[in-house]
Amino acid sequence: MRPGFLLACLVAAVSLGASPPVPAPVRIALPWGYVELTTNEVSVVSTVDDPPAVRLVSVGRALGKVSFNRLRPDGRQEEVAILQGKIDERYPSRLAGEVTIHVRNLGTGDSAMVPVLLLRSDEAVFYVPVYQARR
């Protein structure tokens, strides 16, 4: 069987609405566990009595962020929410940290990402009203 024939069958199946085959997970084995990549997930698994960690490291003041983005039809990403870790802005030359949460409002561009919560070792600052949930 020719490889081109298989590709043509796959293209025909997808164009008829059939789902393409789901690829098998990729596992990267390590002496203390493994990293597994599946269709839309990444797992860091510890097989020893030590919790797994994902480290975002930088030499700058902003140390790392997790960004939650929407994929547009044209392939570009639009940021909707972020969780960011950085050096405490009050002490830029010290090793004090802060965590911020930003979410997108109805605006456009970078200015649409607005702060919602700031956490430091000595305070929590809410930039939005906080309501008690009703039970």
Task: Please tell me about this protein's structure.
- There is one protein chain.
- With 135 residues, the chain is mainly beta.
- It has two domains: 38 residues; 65 residues, no CATH class.
- The protein has one helix and eight strands.
- Strands 4-5-6-7-8 form a five-stranded antiparallel beta sheet, with no helix packed on it. Strands 1-2-3 form a three-stranded antiparallel beta sheet, with no helix packed on it.
**Main sheet: strands, sense, barrel:** 5 strands, antiparallel
Number of strands: 8
Shape: extended
Helix content: under 10%
Strand arrangement across the biggest beta sheet:
4-5-6-7-8
**Count of helical stretches:** 1
Whole-number radius of gyration? 22 Å
Structural class: mainly beta
Relative strand content = 35-45%
Q: Any low-confidence stretches, pLDDT <50, length ≥5? A: none
Order of H and E elements? HEEEEEEEE
Span of the ends, CA to CA: 64 Å
Mean pLDDT: 87
How many domains make up the 3D coordinates? Answer: 2
Q: What is the fold's blueprint, element by element?
A:
Elements (H helix, E strand, L loop, with lengths): L2 H13 L10 E5 L2 E5 L4 E5 L15 E10 L5 E11 L9 E8 L8 E8 L3 E3 L9
Antiparallel strand pairs: 1-2, 2-3, 4-5, 5-6, 6-7, 7-8
